[in-house]
Amino acid sequence: MNFIRYLSMIGLFIVIPLSMPAESDIAGWGKAQWGMSHAALKKHYDLTAWEPGNIPSCKSKRKIRILGRDFAVAFYFDERSSRGKLFKVVLVHLNTVEKDGSWISSIKDLLVDKYGYPISFEVKENMKISRWMKSAGRLKLTTVTGQTVMCAMEYMSVSLAGKKL
Predict the structure, then answer these.
(1) Which sequence spans correspond to the domains of the chain?
(2) What is the C-alpha radius of gyration for the chain, rounded to an integer number of angstroms?
(3) Which residue, 10, 76, 130, 149, has fewest beta-carbon neighbours within 10 Å?
(4) pLDDT tens across 31-54, in order?
């Protein structure tokens, strides 16, 4: 009888990990993958011209909707050319009119469902920062509530960030 209990416990330990959802790596965002060239990214997103400044970046001409909110999307590359390799994507929603930030916890829940629990969490007055680190990339979620509601998600490659900058 003890042998049967022993075997059922072993079976339980084998089945439980198989039923738990696998956490995703952070290999990019959406159809944008780390190391993708600027030219390849243009096939998936309608991009603006290069932004001025030292770090080569451009934005999506269209905002994306997440939980009914419009987010601007910026793409960062290691060089300002069609061969430039993607190393960071930033999504930002900023609202100075609507003060309700209750939807922000749903954003974090979506990220936890996909990537697991963050490795760190900080609170600084009205600002909350959560960080995830995976083998291919990292993610930083920054939220602010109060007079202004802001939600920013910064996806960054672990291997390409700043190599040529």
Answers:
(1) 24-157
(2) 20
(3) 10
(4) 999 999 999 999 999 999 999 999
22 vs 147: which has the higher pLDDT: 147
User: Per residue in 135-146, pLDDT tens?
Assistant: 999 999 999 998
Please give the Cα distance from 129 to 145 (Å, whole number).
12
Q: Tell me if 150 sits within 8 A of 143, measured CB to CB.
A: yes
Backbone angles phi, psi at 105, to 5 degrees: -65, -30
Average pLDDT, the chain: 87
Mean pLDDT of 62-85: 95
Q: Count how many residues are written for the chain.
A: 165
Answer yes or no: is pLDDT of 163 > 60: no
DSSP 94-141: EESS----TTHHHHHHHHHHHH-S-SEEEEETTEEEEEEE-SSEEEEE
d(CA 142, CA 104): 10
Residue of 33, 53, 55 whose CA lies nearest to 45: 33
- DSSP conformation class of 85: B
* 101, HSE (Cβ side, Cα atoms, 13 Å): 21
Backbone φ and ψ of 126, nearest 5°: -90, 5
